[in-house]
């Protein structure tokens, strides 16, 4: 009989925290009643952070299928919140940017998410938050550098 697996490994903790945060994000976005779904909100934030990159790169960064991203972008574009522009280096590709119309929505969304994260990380204190942020950046950069599946797929770190 296999021994019981340790549940407090770094990998297990990160997986659990990611799952819990995703649920909290979804509930927060729904409660804010912004007129967009949690998936559209994640997409809008990613586009704002990585302004002007290709759709395929956005899908990779979000860990979703290109068709799923395309559906989110179609709805956001129909609302006038994002625009697809031709990639100057590749006429077949489209880069995605946020529009001026999206700015107030992004500001409201980010304010709500910041408030949520401050509540969840309150017990860490300001110094603890900075240490956590620094360590997560190191882990993210190590993954990008050492995982052969990620090599070259993510250009420019989104902070």
UniProtKB/TrEMBL annotation:
Alphabetical GO biological process terms: response to stress
Q: Which SUPFAM superfamilies match?
A: Winged helix' DNA-binding domain
Instruction: Tell me the Pfam families matching this sequence.
Output: MarR
Tree of life domain? Bacteria
> Which residues are in coiled coils?
none
Boundaries of every HTH marR-type domain copy: 7-148
Transcription keyword on record = yes
Q: Which UniProt keywords apply?
A: DNA-binding, Transcription, Transcription regulation
| GO MF terms, alphabetically ordered | DNA binding; DNA-binding transcription factor activity
PANTHER family annotated for this entry? TRANSCRIPTIONAL REGULATOR SLYA, TRANSCRIPTIONAL REGULATOR, MARR FAMILY
Protein name, per record: MarR family transcriptional regulator
Organism equals: Rhizobium meliloti
């Amino acid at each position: 009989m296999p021994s019981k697996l340790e549940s407090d490994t770094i990998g297990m903790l990160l997986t659990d925290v990611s799952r819990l945060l995703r649920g909290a994000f979804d509930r927060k976005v729904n409660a804010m009643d912004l007129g967009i779904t949690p998936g559209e909100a994640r997409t809008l934030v990613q586009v704002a952070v990585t302004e002007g990159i290709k759709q395929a790169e956005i899908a990779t960064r979000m860990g979703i299928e290109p068709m799923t991203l395309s559906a989110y972008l179609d709805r956001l574009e129909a609302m006038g919140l994002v625009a697809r522009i031709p990639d100057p280096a590749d006429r077949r590709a489209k880069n995605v940017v946020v529009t001026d119309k999206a700015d107030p929505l992004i500001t409201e969304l980010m304010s709500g998410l910041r408030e949520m994260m401050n509540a969840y990380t309150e017990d860490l204190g300001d110094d603890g938050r900075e240490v956590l942020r620094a360590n997560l950046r190191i882990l993210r950069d190590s993954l990008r550098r050492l995982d052969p599946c990620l090599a070259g797929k993510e250009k420019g770190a989104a902070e």
